[in-house]
Amino acid sequence: MFTIQNIQDLNDLEMSVYQYVMQHQDAIPYMRIRELASNAHVSTTTILRFCKKLGCDGYLEFKLKMKEHLGNQGNVHVPEDLSELKVFLERVDSEAYQQKLNEAASMIAQADRVFCVGVSNSGYVAQYAARYFSGFGKFSMAITDPFYPMWQMNDMENTVALVFSISGEVSQVTQITNQLKQHHCRIISITNTEKCTVAQLAELNLCHYITMRRGENNADFMNPRVEAIIDYTSQAPAVIVAETLAKRVASRLQEE
Fold it and tell me: H or E element: which one contains 248?
């Protein structure tokens, strides 16, 4: 039902509907169009466009196909992250995404220095990416400290920064990205959507459209009233992008 061709045709609003549907598959066959529109924060017109792009004449047919789709799955439950990851992998195989990956790999291969930037969970991805790139012969450095003195660096015209950020709106990451850009560093962003600040600052964006998952948890066991927002969003797409780029950079270095 959800083919890679259909998913690629969705715009940002329609993609938000898709993400909601993936997260609430069992409830969709029993949900009215206005209820889905309200929950997905879009208009009913967007829902109808979404249905049409999936090959349905209207919302009713979409619900019927959705119910049939769930019935065909039987008793096998596929975790949402794996379903979304499968769609992401299909998107990576598309010609447009492959072209972006090749462009990014060429930028990195030609650079004198590579920075991998990220904080929090994305910081761990940045550290892994820097080590992975270095292992393939392209020395890289991770920047995970939001207070790193970027202004002390000299001109970085032949430097590439890979910026990892799920939301693309974390203030520390946008500040670092902006400082790097001001020093003439070329920016490649790996974000969840292209409609974010980090992606707009970047020369090239590789987005993956994974449902953002967050929950509350006690941050201080001595004071249960203190709560923190825990980010459970999968970092698998970002890791896949980093590994793919590193391997392609290695191939280009061997050809030189």
Answer: helix 236-255
